[in-house]
Amino acid sequence: MQLSIEPLIYLGIFAGIYLMIGGIYMLVFGQSIKLNKRVNRRLGLIEKGGSRDEVMAQLRKEMSQHEGGRSVPLFAALADKAQKANLAFTPGMLIGLMAGLTAVTFAALTVLSSAGLPLRIAVSIAFGIGAVFFWVNGAAKKRLALLEEQLPDAIELIVRSLRVGHPLSSSIGIVAKEIADPLGSEMGFIADEAAYGRDVSDSLRSLAERTGLQDLRFLAVAVGIQQKSGGNLAEILEGLSKVVRARFKLFRKVKAITAEARWSGLFLSAFPVLALVGINVMEPDYYSDVKDSAFFLPAAGVVFVFLVVNVVFMRIMVNIKV
């Protein structure tokens, strides 16, 4: 049996450049950018000697640097994910990273594979752009999941602070000192804005728009309504914290119930690709008798379209809104 490792080389190159992105991010920005640190990033910057104005300006720059990219047609999806992930990478850095990874992929394919020039160029561009998008999308999902998990505890801490007599801005400042990232730095930024005169509900609304989280929208609306019509904010937020926690538990329950369906969908979506890779590894000349046929490329295109449709419908079937 004749074996070909070229498909495995492609997978290895993609995995290598994907892991390279995380290494470059940590190398450029250091450990302080990680989300699992006990002290949130805002407090870390203040402890290093930065004034509140300097820290606030730096955080504002990072939070808003990807907003302009949303108007660029081809970059809009990546810019939206990068803003939700609150990446320290600037849009220019992301574009440069995609170009650099494309060049690295092309060099690796030139050395390790015998593919023709047009195929190497196409695969290099696809890998360079795709690896960055998958990494940014993963970072955004991780950060949003942490925000959703931290929010009920943060609201309950605000409620306890309000009941002992602290104003809302001070209560949010307490949350900023007690909660880790990503919510700790976000709440600290809101507390700093409130100290300079911005309305808390407007800051919360901006945070909800940047992250796209429904629970943060509920919090912003609750604070805004209380400021306009009055009432006991502690009781309002206590009820909201129970609702948010119940939604979070329900979401986890739905995720557990649909786990089998999601993994089945993942397997059914990945199996044709894995089968194609396996066939090309074990029998490189398997399609040699038909690849020159006029119907080969159209048939391959139809199979690819059906594969994409399968992936889309599998995601729709298990994407249950809570």
Describe what this molecule looks like in 3D.
Among the domains are: 146-253, Receptor-associated Protein; 258-322. Helix content is 77%, strand content 0%. It is built from 13 helices and no strands. The mean pLDDT is 85.
Short key terms for the protein model shown above:
elongated, mainly alpha, 322 residues, Receptor-associated Protein
Order of helices and strands: HHHHHHHHHHHHH
Q: Which CATH-level-2 architecture of one domain?
A: Up-down Bundle
Question: Overall pLDDT, averaged?
Answer: 85
- Quickly give the structural class: mainly alpha
Radius of gyration: 24 Å
Envelope shape: elongated
State the major sheet: none
Can I get a quick summary?
It contains 13 helices and no strands. With 322 residues, the protein is an all-alpha fold.
List the helices and strands and how they pair.
Elements: H1 6-29, H2 41-47, H3 52-64, H4 76-85, H5 91-112, H6 117-163, H7 168-178, H8 183-195, H9 200-211, H10 214-229, H11 233-257, H12 259-282, H13 296-318
Helix pairs in contact: 1-5, 1-6, 3-8, 4-6, 5-6, 6-7, 6-11, 7-8, 8-9, 9-10, 10-11, 12-13
